[in-house]
């Protein structure tokens, strides 16, 4: 009997081990990313590039609409900037709406990016629109509100509701200088943010308002800005950040960015989003490693409050406008860096 029991046990163990190693046994794998994780790109240059004759291709070399190429690379969100009255017309309200319609028709979510300028607004310049140049802070608050409502309404009239809306772009020292320069008058900056917030919610209560700062690794900068906004009564839903590392420092900056994101969640209870990333197009393998890592780090943010990652103008190739941080090769096809967004 003892021999039979031992043999029986051995057969049971063998059977269990074999079933575990059976390659035909289906394995249940947990998804790596939250189901609603944002994987996207800012492609605000697309209409201007198309007008200049540039074309886009999938990896097989077949010409396709850029939005289709991005969708096939796993992206689900498009970010679009809007300027008040640009001299060349690109990225004005009409151009924005045309691109937003295309994005919506392809099933993308939309992140709308207000610069509150006629041209680029970033950490080094926050120039008032020409039409607002002589306005004081009271008039500027009114102008921010009116412009925001007008653009949001133009989208709404086409059946488009942005899921996220940035009020200002890389506002490291406020916006609409000098009146809204944060280092000179944080209260003015907070009031301008609040004007934008109120305007967004007046048209679409479901849209989440983003305040966007560059250098996502710089915790002291983020604490200074968001403490200042909080202490002066401004409201926001999402803390947005940019991250543009080099091929040599990306791992360090990604780790610092994750520390900062978790601190923002703990300190303010808000969601966070990496609204812009980029790296030299000539090193796509390193760029993919950077993207793989920052996507998973953002997904790991505490309490599920890491919303997603968006590449800034990946479709740029052949140094379009002198920009060299795209993720397409010289023939107009996505590089291996873009495969990072295929993760699910």
From TrEMBL:
| Record-listed E.C. numbers | 3.2.1.89
One biological process term from GO is: pectin catabolic process
The cross-references to Gene3D superfamilies, in alphabetical order and at most eight, read: Glycosidases
**Keyword rRNA-binding assigned:** no
Q: Name one GO molecular function term.
A: arabinogalactan endo-1,4-beta-galactosidase activity
Note the superkingdom of the native organism: Bacteria
InterPro entries given in the database record = GH, Glyco_hydro_53
**Any signal peptide, and if so, which residues?**
1-19
Catalytically driven reaction(s) = The enzyme specifically hydrolyzes (1->4)-beta-D-galactosidic linkages in type I arabinogalactans
UniProt keyword annotations, A-Z:
Glycosidase, Hydrolase, Signal
Any keyword Signal?
yes
Regarding protein family, the annotation reads: Belongs to the glycosyl hydrolase 53 family.
Q: What is this protein called?
A: Arabinogalactan endo-beta-1,4-galactanase
Q: Which organism is it from?
A: Solitalea agri
């Amino acid at each position: 009997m003892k021999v039979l029991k031992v043999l029986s046990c051995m057969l049971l163990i063998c059977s269990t081990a074999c079933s575990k190693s059976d390659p035909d046994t289906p394995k249940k794998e947990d998804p790596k990313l939250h189901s609603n994780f944002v994987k996207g790109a800012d492609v605000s240059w697309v209409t201007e590039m198309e007008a200049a004759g540039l074309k886009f291709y999938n990896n097989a070399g077949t010409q396709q609409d850029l939005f289709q190429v991005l969708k096939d690379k796993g992206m689900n969100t498009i970010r679009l900037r809007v300027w008040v009255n640009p001299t060349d017309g690109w990225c004005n309200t009409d151009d924005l709406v045309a691109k937003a319609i295309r994005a919506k028709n392809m099933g993308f979510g939309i992140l709308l990016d207000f610069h509150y300028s006629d041209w680029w607004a970033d950490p080094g310049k926050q120039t008032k629109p020409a039409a607002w140049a002589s306005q004081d802070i009271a008039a500027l608050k009114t102008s921010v509100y009116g412009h925001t409502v007008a653009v949001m309404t133009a989208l709404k009239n086409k059946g488009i509701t942005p899921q996220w809306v940035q009020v200002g772009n890389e506002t490291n020292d406020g916006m609409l200088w000098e009146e809204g320069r944060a280092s000179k008058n944080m209260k003015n900056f907070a009031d301008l943010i609040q004007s934008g917030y109120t305007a967004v919610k007046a048209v679409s209560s479901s849209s989440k308002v983003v305040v966007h700062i560059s250098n996502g690794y710089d915790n002291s900068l983020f604490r200074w800005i968001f403490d200042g906004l909080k202490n002066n009564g401004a409201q926001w839903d999402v803390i947005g950040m940019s991250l543009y590392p080099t091929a040599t420092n990306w791992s360090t900056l990604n780790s610092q960015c994750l520390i900062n994101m978790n601190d923002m969640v703990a300190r303010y209870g808000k969601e966070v989003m990496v609204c812009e990333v980029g790296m030299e197009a000539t090193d796509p393998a390193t760029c993919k490693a950077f993207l793989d890592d920052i996507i998973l780090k953002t997904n790991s943010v505490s309490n599920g409050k890491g919303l997603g990652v968006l590449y800034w103008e990946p479709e740029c190739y052949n140094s379009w406008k002198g920009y060299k941080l795209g993720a397409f090769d010289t023939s107009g096809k996505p590089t291996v860096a873009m495969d990072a967004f295929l993760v699910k």
